[in-house]
């Protein structure tokens, strides 16, 4: 399963999510069982991310170099 998702709907959170932007998804099986994803958003004040409806995103597979770059940017 992908560690990254693309925002496809930010209608309810335009200040926290950018349409078309790739976000890191954090593991949270409890949230996923409720159709939610834990995502590190634009706020970045919360290292544990925030919960958003899964319908706001779509999974994306990235090349390894892109994943490393995004992970380093979040550090």
Q: Tell how many strands the DSSP assignment holds.
A: 5
Q: How many H/I helical runs?
A: 2
SSE class: alpha+beta
Please compute the radius of gyration using only Cα atoms. 12 Å
Percent of residues in beta strands? 25-35%
Give a quick account of the main beta sheet: strands, pairing sense, barrel closure.
5 strands, antiparallel
CATH architecture descriptor: Roll
Q: Percent helix among the residues? A: 10-25%
CATH-defined fold name:
SH3 type barrels
Q: Tell the overall outline.
A: globular
| Spatial order of strands in the largest sheet | 4-3-2-1-5
Order of helices and strands: EEHEEEH
What's the CATH first level?
Answer: Mainly Beta
User: Domains counted in the coordinates: how many?
Assistant: 1
Give the overall pLDDT as a whole number.
Answer: 90
Distance between the termini: 21 Å
Low-confidence stretches: none
């Amino acid at each position: 399963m992908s560690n990254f998702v693309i925002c496809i709907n930010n209608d309810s959170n335009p200040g926290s999510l950018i349409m078309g932007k790739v976000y890191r998804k954090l593991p949270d099986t409890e949230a996923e069982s409720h159709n939610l994803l834990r995502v590190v958003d634009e706020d970045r004040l919360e290292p544990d991310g925030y919960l958003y409806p899964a319908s706001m995103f779509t999974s994306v597979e990235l090349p390894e170099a892109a994943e490393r770059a995004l992970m380093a940017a979040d550090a």
